[in-house]
Design brief:
- The complex is a heterodimer of chains A (513) and B (406).
- Chain A is of the alpha+beta class and 513 residues long.
- Chain A has 20 helices and twelve strands.
- In chain A, the strands form three sheets. In chain A, strands 1-2-4-5-3 form a five-stranded antiparallel β-sheet, sandwiched between helices. A five-stranded antiparallel β-sheet of chain A has the order 6-7-9-10-8, sandwiched between helices. Chain A has a two-stranded antiparallel ribbon with strand order 11-12.
- In chain A, helix 13 packs across helix 15 and helix 15 runs antiparallel to helix 16.
- Chain A is elongated and about 105 Å long.
- The two termini of chain A are 31 Å apart.
- With 406 residues, chain B is an alpha/beta fold.
- In chain B, the strands form two sheets. In chain B, strands 1, 2, 3, 4, 5, 6, 7, 8, 9 and 10 form a ten-stranded mixed β-sheet that branches. In chain B, strands 11-12-13-14 form a four-stranded mixed β-sheet, with helices on both faces.
- In chain B, helix 8 packs across helix 9 and helix 10 crosses helix 11.
- Classes of the chains: A alpha+beta (513), B alpha/beta (406).
- At the A-B interface, helix 14 and helix 18 of A face helix 1 and strand 1 of B.
Chain lengths: 513, 406
């Protein structure tokens, strides 16, 4: 940031018609940049010209054979044809129409614009006598191939996932929606990174106010660099103090398109495969795109399973603590005797026991994520089998608790959204504290608190628990169950009806405060 | 808003801390009571016996507990009241007794004859105790029954509970007993539990033989104990107890056997399993005298037939059905007669029928003196028996097919 301020006066430079003067300025700006290349030449002996580009971001082949070659080799007659009245306009015309074989050409007057284009990988073509600079697109850099998304695998469904190049990502979406209604708007954020952000939506389906709000919030972003969509998410979400993710993050183009069809807005960010979809609601975070590809009976059953998983992963250890330390009468006698018998040798209170095991499990999981894949498997074997088995046999933890912890672990892997899973993983611990201090009463209180919080959450004007609260009966066709397609009305209509009269009223009030 | 919430939350949290009543208790610090016995001993003291799970012995499949050892421990203490005795036991053991998993409460004969209201009172008031523990009465000392080891389950009380749940004979939980005690025109009963030899060779047990608790002894439900108000007045045998179930529409699983007497050349025995049994008791007032019409409708499946009777013909089936109708009627009459004449206690609840069906008459005439009136009531019994199945074979394999001739 400091650097940029020092360079500020160079940006004020007004392009001259003299190539060498301009070049000198470029050289000052790109001082000590080894990847900047200046190539001066004479356009077939007629005029001086120069190319400025960053060597790592352009296709050298293109520059050599499609820009340099025609310019240097060009037939002398071309210039003679124009006669003595060879002026700037005819020069432009000549270059655009007779010399360069590039489809993406544009002229710029501003020095700062030209610098930006050079930085994003375009080639600047300076021509003696012309004040304007021609920008030629010859972008090319090494990129990952379109690959299967690692975080959102499906059994049935497209295997394409986004990757780090925004143009590829845009093409992946466009290929699925061949309509001019699909709009893509360009924005730049990040003072130093100048990251390209593309806002995409379906015109005619989306609520225009939502698009404006998204643009407004992105426009307000003040940060040096955006390295991942998480930066943007945190800066544009309604309540950044909440544990719950309020936007949908996905690696799958089909999921983005599905959401655009529901009237949502996608935010594609350069250099990351994770696309943000707003507004994000709780129940949507519990859905997988595969729900729509599988038969709807099966999809509905799986969805219900997920709701159980949510409850399990949040409540199972705390229920164990509450029931065994406060409400022994609620456990069936035979089960109680079994639990009591296996707890007989355990020296810790149930809470400590559960806490230790939960922390151990979370550590194992975290270790497994960070380690290289082959080692990660070893960790899970050592952790799961050896520690679990040994701890039970040593009488440090009871075997019912190991069952509880592993069931909780399995349940927390069912979450289709990793972000939401993380929230519930964390919430489990306060829940356990509540259970250890107040039993079921504590669990109930914590659940109520959680519910109050979730009810107060909004994502871009849409209540977080839509369509459960506020209740929209018609919206329920796609929440707990997935009704078959003929039964589902237009999703966009649904989303519109879910919104308040003025979704951003609350927001403005908050800002005015 | 946030401030208010914070205040509300901290208040609600601290409120529960200042009560000082923290019911948190680890599983390692509880002793699970599975059965309780109550006896009246000398000096009008109550002896409370509790059967407590020895949890470390029930490791289950891990096999760490020695299987030959007992899974339960028995403690007993005398006191002026149940609570007094309970506190005395509590002082003897290092763990907290919890009654919430108590299966059965056994009452000794002596205590039962002197009235068990104080017991019911305690078990209804003490909030740890469940109303659905079964109440049982035994001839002799109830404490001795706790010593009998289990044969199938982990502890003997569970076996009793399972037996009671099978509803082979009439039973009562503490809640049932209390309700029947309070209801007008019906007297309570409990099942009768006795120690019996499990096998043929087992000898009569003596109470001193506590250590010798192998599988030779078992607890069995042998009948019902009949109460008038809260006092034991007598016993009914298993068959009568079964009949009580029919009359109260609680029948679940019953077998009736009839015999064709030896004089008849078709002689043999027939057994049916009851599928359905519905009893209706109707009261009517005639000549200022209350009369009852008891009607039983039963359906059954023929399970055993050693007679020479072919079940192929519907004629024969009718005959058989009539035999069963007679048998059922006889048993119902006997049971009613016994409760009327021998115990003078309305355990079937004729009084409550009058109370419901002829409320006015009840209030005017019987409400205060049903006890006396009961032994004079007239009961008319009718039965209808239908056999709906005859099993996999038609005729008895033992005998040749022959028509029954009369």
């Amino acid at each position: 940031m400091v650097q940029k301020i020092q360079l500020e006066h160079h940006y004020d430079y007004i392009l001259s018609s003299d190539v060498s003067e301009d070049l000198a300025h470029f050289k000052t700006i790109f001082d000590n940049c080894i990847d900047i290349k200046f190539r001066e030449f004479v356009i077939h002996g007629a005029r001086k010209g120069a190319l400025v580009f960053l060597s790592g971001l352009v296709n050298i082949q293109t520059i050599d054979f499609e820009i340099m070659k025609p310019l240097v080799e060009s037939d002398e007659r071309l210039f003679q044809d124009s006669g003595s009245g060879f002026n700037d306009d005819s020069m432009k015309h000549l270059i655009e129409n007779r010399l360069l074989f590039s489809s993406q050409l544009s002229w710029f007057d501003e020095f700062s614009d030209v610098v930006e284009h050079i930085l994003s990988g375009n080639v600047a073509f300076l021509i003696d006598g012309l004040k304007q600079v021609l920008i030629i697109n010859a972008k090319h850099w090494d990129k990952r191939a379109v690959d299967e998304p690692a975080t959102e695998a499906v059994i049935r469904g497209p295997r394409e996932g986004f990757q780090e190049t925004i143009s590829t990502n845009i093409s992946l979406i466009r290929r699925r929606l061949k309509t001019p209604q699909l709009k893509m708007e360009d924005m730049i954020a990040g003072r130093l990174s100048n990251t390209q952000i593309v806002i995409t939506y379906l015109d005619g389906i989306v609520d225009k106010k939502l698009v404006d709000e998204v643009k407004k919030r992105i426009g307000k972003i003040k940060i040096d660099a955006i390295l991942e969509s998480g930066y943007v998410e945190e800066l544009i979400e309604d309540n950044s103090f909440s544990l719950f993710p309020q936007v949908l993050i996905t690696e799958r183009p089909d999921r983005v398109v599905g959401n655009l069809l529901e009237g949502k807005v996608g935010i594609i960010i350069d250099n990351t495969p994770f696309v943000i979809i707003v507004p994000g609601t709780f129940f949507q975070l519990l859905q997988s795109p595969e729900d729509y590809y599988q038969r709807y009976f099966i999809a509905s059953a799986i969805r219900m399973l997920r709701f159980f998983a949510v409850l399990f992963s949040l409540l199972l250890p705390s229920l164990y603590i509450a029931l065994t330390t406060y409400h022994q009468e609620m456990i069936p006698t035979m089960l109680l005797i079994s639990i009591a018998a296996s707890r007989e040798t355990v020296p810790f209170p149930a809470f400590i026991e559960a806490l230790v095991m939960e922390i151990a499990f979370e550590s194992l999981r975290e270790a497994g994520v960070r380690l290289p894949r082959p080692v990660g498997q070893a960790v899970s074997i050592v952790g799961g089998l050896v520690i679990g088995q040994a701890a039970v046999e040593a009488g440090i933890v009871s075997s019912p608790l190991v069952i509880v912890v592993s069931m909780t672990g399995i349940a927390s892997f069912i979450f289709p959204s990793f972000q939401l899973g993380l929230a519930f993983r964390l919430l489990r611990f306060p829940m356990m504290v509540a259970a250890a201090t107040f039993g079921l009463y504590g669990i109930l209180m914590m659940l109520l608190l959680l519910l109050i919080h979730m009810l107060r959450l909004h994502s871009f004007g849409v209540p977080y628990l839509t369509p459960m609260a506020p209740l929209r009966i018609s919206g329920l066709k796609d929440v707990i169950i997935r009704a078959n397609w003929p039964k589902q009305s237009s999703h966009a209509e649904e989303l519109k009806s879910q919104r308040y009269h003025n979704p951003f009223k609350r927001l403005r009030q908050r800002q005015n405060r | 808003m946030r401030k208010q919430l914070t205040i509300f939350l901290s208040l609600s949290v601290f409120m529960y801390m200042i009560t000082g009543c923290w019911s948190r208790i680890e599983l390692n610090d509880i002793a699970i009571v599975t059965a309780a016995s109550l006896d009246l001993v000398d000096d009008q003291k109550i002896q409370l016996g509790v059967q407590v799970m020895k949890t470390k012995m029930t490791k289950g499949t891990a096999g760490k507990g020695d299987s030959s050892e007992d899974t339960t421990l028995i403690f007993s203490e005398q006191g002026d009241s149940v609570m007094d005795a309970y506190r005395k036991i509590q002082k003897k053991i290092p763990r907290n007794l919890i009654f919430s998993h108590n299966r059965i409460v056994i009452i000794g004969e002596k205590l039962a004859r002197s009235g068990i209201t104080p017991i019911i009172e305690f078990f209804s008031r003490y909030r740890d105790v469940r109303g659905n523990s079964y109440l049982l009465t035994t001839k002799g000392k109830a404490y001795d029954l706790l010593n009998v080891g289990p044969n199938f389950e982990k502890f003997s009380a569970e076996e009793i509970r399972e037996e009671q749940k099978a509803r082979v004979i009439d039973s009562a939980t503490i809640r049932d007993f209390a309700f029947r005690l309070l209801e007008l025109g019906i007297e309570p009963i409990t099942s009768q539990l006795q120690i019996i030899p499990a096998g043929e060779k087992a000898t009569e047990p003596s109470s001193s033989e506590k250590k010798n608790k192998n599988n030779e002894l078992a607890l069995a439900l042998v009948g019902v104990a009949v109460y008038r108000k809260d006092r034991l007045v007598g016993w009914m045998n298993a068959q009568e107890a079964e009949t009580l179930l029919w009359l109260r529409n609680k029948m679940k699983d019953s077998v009736i056997t009839v015999m064709i007497p030896e004089e008849n050349k078709l002689f043999g025995k027939l057994s049916v399993q009851l599928m359905k049994s519905k009893a209706t008791i109707k009261s009517k007032i005639e000549n200022d005298q209350v009369q009852f019409q008891v009607h039983l409708e039963m359906t059954g499946d023929l399970f055993e037939n050693t007679t020479k009777l072919s079940t192929n013909s519907s004629n024969n089936l009718h005959t058989v059905q009539r035999l069963f109708e007679d048998e059922v009627e006889k048993r119902v009459r006997l049971t009613i007669q016994k409760s009327k004449k021998k115990f003078k206690t309305d355990i079937i609840g004729f009084g409550s029928k009058v109370h419901r069906q002829n409320n006015k008459v009840w209030n005017e005439k019987y409400a205060d003196r049903w006890d006396e009136e009961f032994s004079n009531i007239k009961v008319n019994v009718t039965t209808k028996f239908t056999i709906i199945g005859t099993g996999r074979i038609n005729d008895s394999l033992i005998w040749e097919e022959k028509e029954m001739k009369k």
